[in-house]
Design a protein that fits this description.
It comes from Eremomyces bilateralis CBS 781.70. By secondary structure, the protein is mainly alpha-helical. The protein has a two-stranded antiparallel ribbon with strand order 1-2. The chain has one domain. The chain is built from 8 helices and 2 strands.
């Protein structure tokens, strides 16, 4: 009997789809991911530093209660880990993720699903519900970075890697994370005395309004997940079946085949034909 019957057949990611691209070589894919991770972390710490030194200490502390900020932290950490694993694949022909316990491997896959789904929810809710005006250039930059560039970072992870469609069961993980955040939002109100988002204030929008917003965001998240699933499927069909671009698998030490073994001399890249390892 399979240990986790609701997840894809083991082994996890046998052809290293999370760490390779149909478009970029492992080296260039590593550099792209590392650059995005660096930009995200520089942005986060610059925002914290700027607010703390410009009389906005409270705003800096409160940022950890906002779904926008937490999602951006998630993007930063995901790209850092993804760059690390892609770099280890480029250097040694096998990502360190392949040596991790199975549970951590699937948590990485769920992590991937969150950063290809939640940024869309953040951006839609901000521009449709929360946006008012930008008062300063700093305010403009910080909001555009967290509510527009975040979307770009999500799209890049949908289109550039060779990742498969996420299992439907991962929707449950997204729902659980949204529920946990809702709890955090009300814990923040109970301890700090403010609502992180005005639509969570039943005194302003009524209990029915709060419930409506929460259900709407939940449904929107599921819809976004479905659309992302569909886009990934289209990418797989177009790049691998129509264009025959199954993946650039060259490493520093040799050409890596699906089993991960080195063969032959070093090449800049190799197109590897493989059967799909479906994740559904």
């Amino acid at each position: 009997m399979r240990r986790w019957p609701w997840l894809p057949e083991p082994p996890f990611d046998p052809t290293h789809r999370f760490h390779t691209s149909w478009l970029l070589s492992p080296l260039h894919f590593f550099l792209l991911r590392a650059l995005i991770a660096l930009y995200c972390f520089v942005t986060i710490f610059f925002l914290l530093g700027w607010r703390s030194t410009h009389g906005m200490d409270e705003a800096a502390r409160r940022s950890f209660s906002y779904f926008t900020s937490l999602t951006f932290w998630g993007i930063a950490f995901y790209y850092a880990f993804a760059a690390f694993h892609t770099g280890s694949f480029w250097f040694a022909g096998k990502p360190l993720l392949a040596r991790w316990p199975t549970a951590l491997q699937y948590l990485h896959a769920i992590f991937y699903t969150t950063i290809t789904t939640f940024p869309f929810v953040v951006t839609i809710v901000f521009w449709a519900v929360l946006f008012d005006t930008f008062s300063t250039p700093f305010d403009t930059w910080s909001n555009v970075t967290q509510h527009a560039l975040n979307l770009l970072f999500a799209v890049l992870e949908i289109l550039i890697p060779r990742t498969e469609r996420p299992p439907v069961v991962y929707v449950a993980a997204l729902v659980v994370l949204l529920a946990l955040y809702l709890g955090l939002a009300y814990i923040t109100y109970a301890t700090e005395g403010f609502y992180v988002y005005s639509f969570l204030d039943d005194g302003e929008v009524g209990r029915g309004g709060v419930a409506g917003y929460c259900v709407g965001i939940l449904v929107g998240t599921v819809v976004v997940y479905g659309l992302v699933w569909l886009v990934i499927w289209v990418r797989l069909v177009v790049t691998e079946e129509k264009w025959g671009m199954a993946g650039k698998m060259a490493t520093r030490r040799g050409v890596v085949h699906p089993g991960g073994a080195e063969v032959g001399e070093v090449k800049d890249q190799v197109e590897m034909s493989e059967s799909h390892h479906s994740a559904v």
